[in-house]
Amino acid sequence: MFPTALTPVPFAPEISLHLVTQPLGLFDLTGGEFHSDQPPPFWAFAWAGGQALARHLLDRPAQVAGRRVLDVATGSGVAAVAAARCGAAAVACTDVDPAAVEAAHRNASANGLSLVARLDDPEVVLAGDVFYSPTVAPKMVATLRAFRKNGATVLVGDPGRGFFPGRLFELVAEYVVPVPAHLEETEALTTGVWRMK
Question: What is the DSSP annotation of 86-121?
Fold first, then answer.
């Protein structure tokens, strides 16, 4: 486990997460290396897309209140925790990294909330910062399209990552989200919340 501290989320301070607080980048936590068998600890940071989704939900809780919500590629779980705080009927999360799912549950608990282990029929699907690579983006498109086809509302938070398929989405909100300069090489990212068409 990496050194983290329970810290208010910069753009959604109503929520606190166990985050890396030292000026470290993603790969600083892996010894500067990428190992395909062990994902880097994306869960140790509050990425801009997740923060934007969290803020969007906290300002508009009716979008998830009383509904079944799934947070895909949850990372720290910031969007899942926000959905639970807004009164969702049930919130689950998924991630390719089991440590991220554990982190999301730990973060929900730290906020006096809980996530369910599994949710097969979500009404709302959340995905923050998932279009960051040419190999991940098409898989995420297929996953999100399947949920949309089954009638779910799909909301994505994206700060202009290079592989975001904008043609599939409509912009519903835009925020300037504070981010760690050592992680993003800037102190803020303009981040959209997008609804899949």
Answer: TT-SEEEE--SSHHHHHHHHHHHHHTT----S--SS
State which H helix or E strand residue 8 sits in: strand 5-9
160's torsion region: left (phi>0), alpha (psi -120 to 50) or beta?
left
pLDDT tens, residue by residue, 58-109: 999 999 999 999 999 999 999 999 999 999 999 999 999 999 999 999 999 9
Residue 125 CA to residue 138 CA, distance in Å, equals 17
Tokens of 117: 């282990």
**Region 5-196: CATH code:** 3.40.50.150
Quote the Cα angle for 188-191-195, to 5°. 170
Q: Give tens-digit pLDDT for 4-29.
A: 899 999 999 999 999 988 766 665 55
Instruction: Give the domain ranges of the chain.
Output: 5-196
Encoded amino acid at 165, one letter: P
